[in-house]
Amino acid sequence: MAQSLTTPTTGRGGRRTTLAGRQSRTGLLLMSPTLLIILVVVVFPLLWSILISFQELKLIQIGRANPFAPLTLDNFRLVLRSGALWSSLWTSAVYTFGSVVVTTVIGMVAALAVRKPFPGRTFVRAAFLLPYVAPVVAVTFVWKIMLNPEFGIVNEFGQRWLGWSEPIPFLTQSRGIWDLFGLQIPVPTALLTVILFEGWRYFPFAFLFLMARLEGLSSEPEEAALVDGATPWQSFRYILLPQLAPVLTVLVLLRTIWTFNDFDDIFLLTGGAAGTQVASVRIYELLTVQRNVGAASAQSLVLALVLILLLGIYVTVLRRRGERV
Amino acid sequence: MSRSYSYDTWNRDRVQRMLFGIARPVVIGVLLLWVILPFYYMVLLSFMPIESLLRDPGRLWITPDEFTLSTYEKVLRSVQDGGQGFGSFLANSGVVSISSVLLALAIAIPGAYAVARLEFFGRRKVNALFVATYLFPAIVLAIPLFVLFTRLGLRGSLVGLVLVYIAQTVPVAVYMLRNYFETVPVSIEESARLDGLGTFGTLWRITLPLSLPSIMATGLFVFMIAWNEFLFALLFLVDRRESWTVSLGLAQLSGSIEVPTTILMAGSVVITLPVIILFFATERLLTGGLTAGAEKG
């Protein structure tokens, strides 16, 4: 659509360069504020962060932080040798996998459930977006109070109606035992609770994506399948799901990247205790508790490298689908 | 053989249809309950004195004689007057969010227009840069920015926070606006050019008014990010209570045991309401075919 403005008229060789030159100058001029802020607040700090990870820098020294301080590999030695890095990356991986599966499945179920019109559909769709819109600090606070072992409504309910013998410390217990038909199944209570919270808070994102795609679909293939005698499940599995596959790919990758870096939700719910210390919470602790800026920087770079790997996959997938990135 | 097969699938089809027919309203009901319950509980506790909660924690309703508004009064009043100072947190968050919206739009609109309409060196690479910036983990940037802002004396000031929010939102803002600018017919802009408007004049008088819904959507997005953001507020402002934003204020106060839960619930309601009201107020505005019929005259 932009062609007629962006492609200069052919056959006028002399004007072509000036028009293109003028456009190029105006374009860069209009872009410059955007580029400037990204340069100052994103690119430059990132480069400095790489430098810091090779320098010795404690929190009390940062007022005098010097980019030309001597370089050392001590931070990486410290970070890579401590088991905490690998265990935190593993926790991040489990947390990410669980959250992405839960949010995608719930989002899909919700999108399919409200697909056909029914009274109150607008209200239901709006309500489904609430958890995603509300401030994370407020919703984590309510969840914490609801799950509180002393006066939380969930434990009250469980003890009164579900026959729990004692309150479950949902957010402070790293390993609980589920007694299922005489089987003693160990479960990571806090990690599961945090994943469930993620499912609550981020399913609207999957819901929005999938709903938009569902509305854009033609109903003809499904009608044809109906005529041919397909059951509802067959129609979903062989007609609908293949058409949703591209959206699902993008959705899963985006959520994976975001969940892998997630700091707020876990920090606010558990503070990283009880087996929920994901990589970003560990970086925060290195910075504020151990007060070792260099080591925090080194660990954050390891996280960034893992992420760049994920981004690479993301871009490749989109390229293969022929989208511009 | 074939008869029994067809009978069998017909049967399975019927069972599935019945199952899905029942499942749909049940699923909607359960999901709705699950989504709403925490919000309902938040509002419920915010009108309750703390004694009622501790006396009988399992209730999902409130009696008229225990209904109170004093929780809201206490949470909003300043610390000097014996409150929790949420009034000033709201003011801080308001200033930060509104400045972020205005500045981010002022920066992103020209950028998005350039990417949508003008051919310039590196135009294609700009997109990749934006995607990378947007998806990059905040925690990785948090450390160098913490050091940098400490050295510049910007840590503890709201200005530093606004800078970070702009940088975090401008890439998406450019992306959102560009997509919309591309749907504005070039022919309208070309007629404006013929009538003697330059690039800036066309952008200001033609493209912007036509793109108002998308600009509002983008502004809302920036506002919500700035209002809800927690990590950078925590890192930059934690030592200075007078500069706390709503998110940081609630997080810090909920960590201490001195402030009663129901008062903080009132605080949660107060900080959640603005985003939700804005979200639902603008959702309707965003659907509008403003360009329809613009070329006829």
- Overall pLDDT of chain A, averaged? 82
Assign an overall shape of chain A: globular
By CATH reckoning, the class of chain A would read Mainly Alpha
Strand order of the largest sheet of chain A: 1-2
Query: Would you tell me the structural class of the helices and strands of chain A?
Result: mainly alpha
Q: Please count the helical segments of chain B.
A: 13
Helix share of residues of chain A?
Answer: 55-70%
Main beta sheet of chain A: strand number and arrangement?
2 strands, antiparallel
Total beta-strand segments of chain B: 0
Proper CATH architecture of the largest domain in chain B: Orthogonal Bundle
What is the quaternary state of this protein?
heterodimer
Low-confidence stretches of chain A: 1-15
Task: Note the run of SSEs of chain B as H and E.
Answer: HHHHHHHHHHHHH
Largest sheet of chain B: none
Secondary-structure map:
The complex is a heterodimer of chains A (325) and B (297).
Chain A: H1 3-6, H2 13-53, H3 74-81, H4 83-113, H5 121-133, H6 136-146, H7 153-161, E1 176-180, E2 183-187, H8 189-216, H9 220-227, H10 232-261, H11 264-269, H12 279-288, H13 293-320
Helix pairs in contact in A: 2-13, 3-13, 4-8, 4-10, 5-8, 8-10, 9-10, 10-13, 12-13
Chain B: H1 2-46, H2 50-55, H3 70-76, H4 86-117, H5 123-135, H6 138-152, H7 158-181, H8 186-194, H9 199-210, H10 212-228, H11 231-237, H12 246-255, H13 261-285
Detailed description of the structure:
The complex is a heterodimer of chains A (325) and B (297). Chain A has 325 residues and is mainly alpha-helical. Chain A has one domain: MetI-like (MetI-like fold). Helices cover 70% and strands 3% of the residues of chain A. Chain A has a two-stranded antiparallel ribbon. In chain A, strand 1 (176-180) and strand 2 (183-187) form a beta hairpin. In chain A, helix 3 crosses helix 13. The longest helix of chain A is centred in the first third of the chain and has 41 residues, at 13-53. With 297 residues, chain B is mainly alpha-helical. Chain B folds into 2 domains: 2-75, no CATH class; 78-285, Orthogonal Bundle (MetI-like fold), CATH 1.10.3720.10. In chain B, 75% of the residues lie in helices and 0% in strands. Chain B has helices spanning 2-46, 50-55, 70-76, 86-117, 123-135, 138-152, 158-181, 186-194, 199-210, 212-228, 231-237, 246-255, 261-285. Chain B starts with a helix and ends in a 12-residue tail after the last helix. The interface between A and B is large, with 97 and 102 residues.
